[in-house]
Design goal:
Elements lengths: L3 H8 L3 H9 L1 H16 L4 H8 L3 H9 L6 H10 L12
Helix pairs in contact: 4-5
């Protein structure tokens, strides 16, 4: 079975893939932060969903990077994981 990491390495040689991946970089960063917050406190997606009064499928979508969560959603997620939401704009 091919690993995603290996496919990414292979596909990264394609300029179109590289640009598309770069364009999604912010969404990937948000999804990664959500996953890290949840796993840091040892919660399953279902447990986090219950704390946030939502469904497991909503958490799965957030973690997949397919959604753009509102700041309210991110604040709720921070509270549910004992985290503090910090949003920064940094120069390129």
């Amino acid at each position: 079975m091919t690993k995603v990491r290996d496919l990414h390495k292979k596909w990264s040689k394609d300029p179109k893939y590289k640009k598309a991946y770069k364009d999604l970089e912010d969404e990937f960063a948000v999804a990664q932060a959500i996953i890290e917050a949840r796993t840091r406190v040892g919660l399953t997606q279902a447990q986090l969903a219950k704390r946030m009064k939502t469904t497991q499928s909503v958490i799965a979508r957030l973690e997949s990077g397919k959604g753009r969560p509102s700041t309210t959603t991110l604040q709720n997620l921070a509270r549910a994981t004992g985290s503090r939401l910090e949003i920064r704009l940094v120069p390129e």
